[in-house]
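Example record used in the benchmark description.
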Amino acid sequence: MSLWHWLVSSVLAICWLLFLVVWIAGAIYNARKGPGVERRGGGVSRWAFGGVVIWLVLRYVPGLDWLSVRIESEWVRVLGAAILVAATAFTLWARAALGTMWSSEPVAKEGHELRTDGPYAITRHPIYTGIVGMLLGTALAIGLGPFVWVFVVGVVFLELKIRAEERLMTDVFPDAYDEYRRQVPQLVPGLYAVTALWGR
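Model output (structure tokens):
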């Protein structure tokens, strides 16, 4: 095993393990110490089930030559590892900024405040921005292959979850959230600035 291969493999393991530990510990802490739920948005469990079904179907569709979508370049893998590290840091920053208001499903909690600072001034859903970055970085770090479909299904699932959360936030903060949506992009950092420059 080359040094670069070992380094990339270590980065993959550390980033995803750190992500899981923080998420599990945060969920346990929030269940005990977090404020109560005042309002729930649309459920996404059916979308999670649908995502699993799509993944299984695509994963085992006969006739697909995964070797054709593999990248063996060490530089691409190192780039993927760098993206994964940056995305993991961004995800954890967003998770810490949300604190006990975080939930695994769309909810409005007691005393809920609309966050628009820190990572939430970069995208409206910075946790999901970070997770998409983590999936992209992982896909590149392992040389694509079947993980391409994990990335695609992950993005589709997160977008469906975002829609449910945005409906809830629009109901809970009708005026403030509309203004926030006009100022901050949903998922891609800098998107509004790029489109503004493109329109000139």
